[in-house]
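Q: Please design a sequence for this.
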């Protein structure tokens, strides 16, 4: 007997929720009261248990979908040990791929699903497939990479077998819990014949054209080539093993500089741009990460009353201390002693005195945080991300350096999880690594403060009536003037300056 799983009562004045996570998939056996999924409202998280023992049939509301009270979430086949619905019952999406599947059908078909993408993320774009239909794959071998507006997500093979069908090609948008591909479990790759696959590429418009190279080009380059109407064989790749990079596509477009090399644009060309200029332009779709960065920064400007105050700090004491102990520090802790741990410690010290900078506005109230989750802005090839060093106020110098080093590496490799980028209470951004002498950082909402570090530069300073050369750095604190007064902002920055110019103050909490 089929039983309906519906949205429970969500609480007073709450009429809808978002499906956050499914803990079961169609065909899974479940026990009575076993948690099936989790819903999120604007107030609480609600767990949905199984009304009886049985097998989960169909998921009606996937992850990321908004549902109302009593809406249908899924169906359940009652009875412990009930037969799971056959996964091969659905019609083949691409006729020619069914030919390939017929060649490799040696075991049960296993669906490759879009994994949970994280809080508030409901969809992603398929960035790169690392295998093709007919390839043999091992369990946990990476099949493809998805790109969300925050992180890149790798999708591993759930079982060993042969990839018999790809349902979402590169560039396609998929929802959390959606189906990406099908693997024939335990099948042999030799059974899959490449000839039918080659015919499939010609018969099926959705299949990508073969490039003639067994190389995975950079996702940004693929997008640029698609926008420009260039095939890979017309672009010379400079990456490893001839991999095409985005700059290679730019060079190819500049070399051709022919209107025929450009595809018909999706919209009419801008009237104000002369034809000869339009031929030398290129249009590349913004990545989801870049779109999110743009939206959040603009939201911060539209919402917060952002004001910036400046100061400068003499880095002599920190540099001398670092030079004196860096070798011993590396030998004992296995990580280099950088400047960032000093700045984190100095900010933690200042936040204790000026808690407004560590607070946030929530409606008509102010939330004061008795902890410091320090966001550290990191530049990556995909854009700016802000991983969070949690409970930085309880960490030692070496623990801070180790955590920042770990998060920075994961950020550049695109391996950060959603949890590692959420919950920050204050942010530090170091534009000095790129040579910035002074800038005004933008708040990372809903935070109320962000410290901008800049380039260390030798400058003449007056010390005790004498002109001396000192390594100086400009500091900038941008803050939300709705919650932080000018006096508090200036006091915060002065305390950071004092702690850096005399690091002994940090040891004595002065």
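A: Design:
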């Amino acid at each position: 007997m089929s039983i309906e799983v519906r949205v429970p009562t969500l609480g007073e004045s709450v009429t809808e929720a978002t499906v956050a996570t499914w803990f079961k998939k169609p065909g899974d056996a479940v026990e009575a009261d076993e948690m099936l999924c989790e819903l999120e409202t604007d107030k609480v998280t609600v767990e949905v248990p199984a009304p009886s023992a049985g097998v989960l049939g169909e998921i009606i509301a996937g992850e990321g979908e908004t549902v109302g009270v009593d809406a249908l979430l899924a169906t359940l086949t009652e009875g412990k040990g009930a037969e799971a619905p056959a996964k091969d019952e659905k019609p083949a999406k691409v006729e020619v791929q069914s030919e390939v599947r017929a060649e490799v059908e040696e075991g049960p078909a296993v669906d490759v699903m879009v994994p949970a993408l994280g809080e508030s993320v409901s969809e992603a774009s398929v960035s790169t497939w690392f295998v093709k239909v007919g390839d043999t794959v091992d369990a946990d071998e990476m099949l493809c990479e998805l790109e969300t507006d925050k992180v890149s997500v790798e999708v591993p093979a759930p079982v060993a077998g042969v990839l018999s069908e790809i349902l979402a090609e590169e560039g396609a948008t998929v929802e959390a819990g959606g189906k990406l591909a099908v693997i024939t479990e335990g099948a042999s790759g030799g059974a899959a014949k490449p000839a039918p696959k080659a015919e499939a590429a010609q018969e099926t418009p959705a299949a990508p054209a073969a490039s003639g190279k067994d190389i995975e080009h950079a996702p940004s380059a693929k997008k640029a080539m698609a926008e420009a109407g260039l095939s890979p064989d017309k672009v010379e790749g400079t990456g490893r093993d001839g991999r095409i990079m985005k700059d290679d596509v730019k060079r190819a477009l500049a070399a051709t500089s022919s209107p025929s090399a450009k595809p018909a644009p999706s919209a009419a060309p801008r009237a104000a741009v002369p034809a000869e200029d339009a031929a030398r332009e290129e249009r590349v779709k913004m990545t989801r990460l870049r779109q999110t960065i743009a939206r959040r920064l603009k939201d911060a400007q539209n919402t917060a009353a952002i004001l910036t105050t400046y100061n400068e700090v003499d880095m002599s004491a920190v540099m001398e201390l670092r030079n004196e102990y860096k070798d011993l520090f590396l030998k004992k802790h296995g990580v280099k002693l950088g400047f960032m741990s000093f700045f984190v410690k100095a900010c933690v010290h200042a936040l204790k005195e000026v808690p407004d900078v560590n607070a946030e506005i929530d409606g008509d109230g102010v939330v004061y945080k008795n902890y410091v989750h320090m966001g550290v802005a990191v530049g990556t090839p995909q854009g700016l991300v802000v991983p969070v060093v949690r409970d930085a106020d309880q960490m030692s110098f070496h623990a801070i350096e180790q955590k920042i080093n770990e998060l920075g590496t994961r950020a550049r490799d695109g391996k950060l999880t959603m949890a590692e980028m959420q919950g920050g209470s204050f942010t530090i951004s170091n534009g000095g690594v790129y040579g910035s002498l002074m800038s005004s950082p933008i708040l990372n909402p809903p935070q109320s403060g962000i410290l901008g570090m800049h380039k260390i530069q030798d400058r003449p300073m007056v010390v005790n009536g004498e002109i001396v050369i000192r390594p100086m750095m400009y500091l900038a604190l941008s803050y939300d003037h709705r919650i932080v007064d000018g006096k508090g902002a200036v006091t915060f920055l002065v305390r950071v300056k004092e702690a850096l110019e005399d690091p002994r103050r940090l040891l004595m909490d002065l």
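Q: Thanks. Anything notable?
A: The two ends are 70 Å apart (CA to CA). Residues 316-333 form the longest helix (18 residues).
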